[in-house]
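During the second half of the funding period, the structural biology subgroup turned its attention to how the target accommodates small molecules. The most pressing case was iron/sulfur cluster, which had performed well in the primary screen but for which no bound structure existed. We therefore specified the complex as follows and requested a full 3D prediction, including the ligand pose.
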Amino acid sequence: MGELDTGELAVWAAAIYERLRAAYGRPDWRPYYSPMDELILTFLSQNTSDLNSGRAFAALKARYPEWQEALDAPVEELAETIRSGGLAYQKAPRIQKALRRIKEERGEFNLDFLGEMPVEDAMRWLTSFDGIGHKTASIVMLFCFNKAAFPVDTHVGRVTRRLGLAGPKETEEKIKGLWERLAPPEWYYPLHLNLIRHGREVCHAGRPECGKCALIDLCRYPDKTV
Ligand code: SF4
């Protein structure tokens, strides 16, 4: 949005935050998975639904209660175990490579040290893994440690572009930077979840339901469905 300065964009972003909070509430941060579990789940969740990655993760944990067992397993066996998550023959070696590196670097399968690092350093460490991008690294940092990293997935990206805060071709990585500039860190968790919910329930990828949208007067999408 070339015509608005950062201050004006921040006012707009704050109105969006408040409106979503009024519509959906303010989800409180609570860690759900351990950082190790979250990291492995992020590998499994690539290019598949939450349902499928959840099934693959449950199968992996059932077969290999210890990470060392998943690391030592024949890669074909691991791939077979996580088959329900899709792309199993790509994901299995990546998971083993990550487990191997964590064990070598840290001496144990524990990522709690990331919570003690500056968030930029932790993001750099996470994204240096094959198959971990800004979105999944941000999820680990925000969901496990409540650190200031704003994950932008397909829903957050689409809603932000349609609102007009970002241009129609803006990358998800740029949109991550945009929200990190415009929103204070204490908003990241509820805002991320509420934008996803809004994208799933109202601002669908196909045809947005603008008639029931709480953001309609804040939105600059030229093809609103009303
Ligand atoms: S008005 Fe329509 S396009 Fe804009 S955010 Fe709402 S549902 Fe999406």
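Two results from this model are relevant to the next phase. The chain is about 60% helix and 0% strand. The CA atoms of residues 62 and 113 lie 26 Å apart.
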